[in-house]
Amino acid sequence: MTDHLEDALRHKLKAMGADIDAAWDLEQRIARKRAARKLRRSHQKIGATTGALIAAVAATVLVVVSPGGHSQRVTTAVPPPAGPRSAGPAGSGPASGDVSAGKFTRTVVLDDGGLTITPAPPSVQPQIPQTQAQVLVGSDSQVYMRGWTGAVGFAEVSINPKLVSGVDHTPAWVAVIKQEAPFCPNTASPSTPATTAPTQSWSPGYLAVIVAGDGTKVLDYHSRSQVCDFPAKGPSVSDATQLVSIPWQLVSLKGQTLTLRYHKPACDPYAAGTSGPSLSVGGNAKTGQWSLEAFIESPYTLAYHDLLDCGGPLATATTRIGPIPGGPGAPTPAVNTVNHAPTGPVGATT
Question: Which terminal residue of the chain, N or C, has fewer Cβ atoms less than 10 Å from its own Cβ?
């Protein structure tokens, strides 16, 4: 669901006089999605022009998000070919029915062989069950809170060696996700204020999450795509990162402001470059019962129990619950108790 549709639905709920809890629950779902989007955006090197595009369509969220940034680790990329635009990603893209009974049933090709997914022969079996692969895909920082409800399929995967080496008929669980079509700013003239028009990009592209072996090697394949009128990019391959919900302890709760304590894992290579975890809060505005989730980014090579056992310095984070959006006079929710949300890979709880 796009930010514009979410905002429209939210205002419709209020106009209909919907119960305040229903409106708040909707706000929290929107906030969680936007928090995850903001976390993903902070981990990419975005040019000034692209930054202006994001600023034009972004909205303020309710939760406090305090992730640090690190550059996306792109292995390599094929330069965009010159010439006219094509009608979409090259090759035979995914279609309904490609995955049946947990297996790919036909060959899928993206970017003229940049990525090839072929049905695995019966003699080739996965090292981890489908349920575990589903959790790993759902925990991918590029996937979390996209509203993805698809299934992973087992197959053999080959990637053009110009993009990454060593992936040739590799047995893996794969999820192919079509990217969201953005709303592009449309300005008639320099003197005319920018408006947001539902101009769909010519090719939003696909994200293929590839879970190989025992699940410690996970790749994100981004097909060639173009956003609005910006130059086309891709394809590219990067090592995927996962989002995990970590334990925390309540330090203080004063009104709507709470402070928590958590361990910053010493073995997490991304922890040093962050100012703290991303915080997501949800609950009941009338009863004052809330739950809070603190999630961080880590490599798939680190199992969750290893992440907790490696130690690290104690740190604190502060966030505020409410007020409920709605302009002047918007009610401030009661905050009586704040419980711990489930911990572990976030894909296990969505």
Answer: N
Residue labelled with tokens 């703290």: 276
Q: Is residue 267 part of a domain?
A: yes
Report the distance separating Cα 136 and Cα 239, nearest Å.
Answer: 13
Tens-place pLDDT, residues 196-224: 444 443 566 899 999 999 999 999 999 99
Structure tokens belonging to residue 343: 């911990």
Q: b/e map of 244-269 (b: 16 or more CB within 10 Å)?
A: bbbebeeeebeeeebebebbbbebbe
Characterise 37 by phi-psi region: left (phi > 0), alpha (psi -120 to 50), beta (else): alpha
pLDDT, tens digit, for every residue of 133-175? 999 999 999 998 676 778 899 999 999 999 999 999 999 999 9
Nearest alpha carbon to residue 114 among 219, 230, 231, 241: 219
**Does the residue 227 lie in any domain?**
yes
| pTM score of the predicted model | 0.69
Shared domain check, 322 and 253: yes
DSSP letters, 203-249, are B--EEEEEEETTTTEEEEEEPPBB-TTSPPB--EEEE-EEEEEE--E
Residues 175 and 252 placed together within one structural domain of the fold: no
Question: What span, in angstroms and rounded, lies between the C-alpha atoms of 128 and 121?
Answer: 17
DSSP per-residue letters across 89-140: SSS----TTSEETTEE-S-EEEGGGTEEEEPPPTT---SS-HHHHHHHHHTB
Containing 154, the helix (H) or strand (E) segment is strand 153-159
Coil/strand/helix, residue 315? strand
Same-domain status, 218 and 265? no
